[in-house]
């Protein structure tokens, strides 16, 4: 395609810029993002092009995202003389880590960008439909580690020690009051402790317990309240048992919210231009997360979904399943959506005489 590719030293991913032939001073640049990482899953699709790397497969469909953006690049290069601004192609690694996008923001990938469009192939949506609806789409993702320290003693003499297991159990129960008593019931919120490790032996009062968990919400406002609430419960519950607890709280992506009316309209109209109003379907909000939110905090953005579920072709497995596959017509739709959105955005935002 004759594009100059920019790579990142010691880090996967790349970018390339398509310069519009009708770009004028003050024109806009739109970024199109595709995440590129795989998952530690042994592929069982039986496809002729299945992963050749043992224990690794594109179980979330990011290989489709790569193909879609490459397809869009071909389309946009063919019409670049008509583009009224510039298009930045952006292939991003490490989305599955929850915060791979942070690196690219810090590297200035969006410093010359005015808006960004992203999309995800999705088994929760029937093929061949498209979803670009406004509002909340996915939740934030903040993770935590709680370490509870007590005093060991013989299991037959608990009064001589401080039981870290009992303190930890109470902390787990009390954390749920953040959801049930501190949060508006109309706001989705999850506080989950997914791992707990503690104790040395069946007849020893445990002197240490380590727990790990995650918090998810659609509300930017509630997200800011969770850490102090969690910290208060952890500290004071442990103290009630004579134990000591420490909290490590790490913020990852915020919620994905399509809250820019102009971009929402451009995405909607792009789908309608390509496939008609009947191509659009609504999709429930999700408590899963996407590090595309980091980009949306830097520049205005919109995030869409492309349906991959199709019983006739056997594409019935969810994302992250070892048999996940897609209807390949979705690749064409994804490429077309990227290209149409970019062209329409640049036309809508072009400087006026």
From TrEMBL:
SUPFAM superfamilies xref list: Bacterial exopeptidase dimerisation domain, Zn-dependent exopeptidases
Keyword Transcription: no
Keywords, ordered alphabetically: Hydrolase
Sequence ranges assigned to domain Peptidase M20 dimerisation in this UniProt record: 144-238
GO molecular function, one term: hydrolase activity
A Pfam family hit: M20_dimer
Keyword Hydrolase carried by entry: yes
Documented EC number(s): 3.-.-.-
Recorded family membership: Belongs to the peptidase M20 family.
Protein name: Putative hydrolase YxeP
Species per Swiss-Prot/TrEMBL record: bioreactor metagenome
